Amino acid sequence: MISLWCKNQGIKLPDTVQFSKYGGLTKADRDHFVSLLKKMASNLSGQREAAEELRQLTKRMSSYRALFGEYVNAVPHLLFPFSQKSSSEIHAGLQEDLITTLLNISIHEDNKKLVAENPMVIPLLMDAVRSGTVETRSNAAAALFTLSALDSNKVLIGKSGALKPLIDELDKGHPLAVKDVASAIFGLCMIHQNKLIAVRDGAVRVILKKIISRMHVDELLTILALLSTIQKAVEEMGELEAVPCLLCIIRETSCARNKENCIVVLYAICFSDRSKWKEMRDDETTYHTISQLAQNGTSRAKRKASGILERMNRPVNLIHTAIN
Question: Most exposed: 27, 64, 184, 249, by fewest CB within 10 Å?
Fold first, then answer.
């Protein structure tokens, strides 16, 4: 309609606004995109200018995110500065822009495999989690979470060793980065082999320490519930006094999901370690925490709470008989 109106008015449209078949991008847009990638091989000033513009373009426009999948060497060109210097030598602002651009382009579904399988990407994201600015750390963790949407990427990222720097950042990193870090750990731990890696790398101790301090409880309880399918994790939870902490959270929180995650973990502990039954019985005598949840929780929470009560109330000699 615009073209027809312009034609009737005798106005000639410039080439730069003639939409192409490439998602609304013109040839001029695509040429500009290529020129920005080429500038990544220039001096620091040119790199910073190009990186900042690519960050903004990929944030605002999905068509620019898609371009990274159409140009075979787009990701290597974007990361060219890292091929010349180590992450610690890269200008902090440049690193932040490049890592954030990786996050932006990873949002595009067709790019997830392409980005994760580039041999530079996961190590760069790990380095950024370890030593970037607060925003860089957050965005690197967010990129790992976004990439972990694909199961094949979960495996790749887990094998690369990315869980250890994420757990370290969760433990001692900046509070503003913790939410994205927790999301990345959660995404990766959706598969069994990464749960094993996370437990091996100290996730249970770090997560419980944060929960006991009432920091990011919502996110971390979700991860703890995921890890409760791993026997070694459940044993650690018992040793680290998880039971009184979780019972206390059930009483003090109004969040049904948090109550559910707490009882899921307590259920795993109850069926793994009979030495914790006394703590649970004593709590029942004083507060009736588990029985109240068995009546008022979510359907899953009711089921788990009822299972704990049934287990604790079962005569000991029947348990021995069942085992024998």
Answer: 27
Q: What's the start-to-end Cα distance of the chain, in Å?
A: 82
281-316 burial, b at 16+ Cβ within 10 Å, e below that, comes to: eebbeeeebbeebbeebeeebbebbbbbbeebeeee
Taking the C-alpha atoms of residue 148 and residue 93, their distance in angstroms, rounded to an integer, is 26
CA distance 99 to 124: 8
Candidates 18, 48, 24, 20; CA nearest to 36 is 48
Distances in whole angstroms, Cα of residue 100 to Cα of each of 29, 128, 133, 145, 182: 21, 11, 12, 13, 18
Residue whose token pair is 């019972």: 247
Q: Where are the domains of the chain?
A: 20-150, 202-324
Tokens of 183: 């999301």
Mean pLDDT of successive 10-residue stretches along the chain, which has 324 residues: 66 50 78 97 97 98 96 95 89 97 97 97 97 96 98 98 98 93 98 98 98 96 98 97 97 97 98 94 97 97 97 64 38
User: pTM to 2 decimals?
Assistant: 0.89
